[in-house]
Amino acid sequence: MSEILDQSADALLHQRLSENDAGKKVFIGSEDPIGLYNHVVKQFNAACNRTTESSYERLDPNCFYGVWMLRWWTLVRCDTSYIMLFITFCVNFLIGLIPIVNIINVMVWLICYLIYERNQRPHSRVNKQLSSDPFKYMIYHNGLCKQGKLYNLYYELPVSSLSSLGLRESQLEIIKSKKSGSTVTFMVYGDRFKAAWSKFGLLRIVHIIQILVALLGLIIANVLVYPKTHINEFFQST
């Protein structure tokens, strides 16, 4: 769904959220790419957001992958910033120049890539085929999520109050179709929530580039750096 909330409605929505405890905080088990993906899938399967009779499949979480990618992807905001992604490539290259560490670095990236590939198949072959617009019953408003430092927010409001939120008539009807009695529950999401779904496929390219960058650093170190600094002689003597 495109951004459909009027910016002037921010204050009112924040007031509504503070008055309503339901969904104020959405628990996320892990914020690595797989953990965030599973969080998104859980929201897609929620009754108020469901766009298909079939359920989206969760991916298999992996602690090793989670610890590594949390630091190389989520915490440095690579999910929403290509500048930060480029910086991680540069840092990875510099690590590739460090003896012994560079070999471990390449191995870790290879392992993470294999873990990713195992989980990428359900995403591309099953989940992406279920619905053309899994965000249909959700509302995009990055400003609200960013201010609350959250990926998504839930609101449970009287149907009669929806008209004051700045929604277009067609969008009001979509939200009202999920009403329960006199109230309706809907979700607001931001860029990072959307990226956890839309950029999961992009991670394949990121993993491959990180492996190539790590290998490049290792090769340059062995061919150009170590011979000039006599590091090879040091390791041979020990």
Proportion of residues in helical segments: 55-70%
Major β-sheet annotation: 3 strands, mixed
Strand order of the largest sheet: 1-3-2
Task: Work out the strand percent.
Answer: 5-15%
Number of strands: 3
What does the overall shape look like?
elongated
Question: Can you summarize this structure?
Answer:
The protein has 238 residues and is mostly helical. It is built from ten helices and three strands; from the N terminus they run H-H-H-H-H-E-H-E-H-E-H-H-H.
Tell me about this structure.
The chain has 238 residues and is mainly α. The protein has one domain (7-237). It has 10 helices and 3 strands, in the order αααααβαβαβααα. Helix 2 (33-44) packs across helix 8, helix 4 runs parallel beside helix 9 (203-229) and helix 5 (101-130) packs antiparallel against helix 9. The relative contact order is 0.19.
Spell out the blueprint of helices and strands.
Layout: H1 10-19, H2 33-44, H3 63-74, H4 82-95, H5 101-130, E1 138-140, H6 142-148, E2 152-158, H7 169-176, E3 183-189, H8 191-198, H9 203-229, H10 231-237
Parallel strand pairs: 1-3
Antiparallel strand pairs: 2-3
Helix pairs in contact: 2-8, 3-5, 4-9, 5-9
List keywords for this structure.
disordered N terminus, about 240 residues, 3 strands, single chain, 10 helices, three-stranded mixed β-sheet, mainly alpha
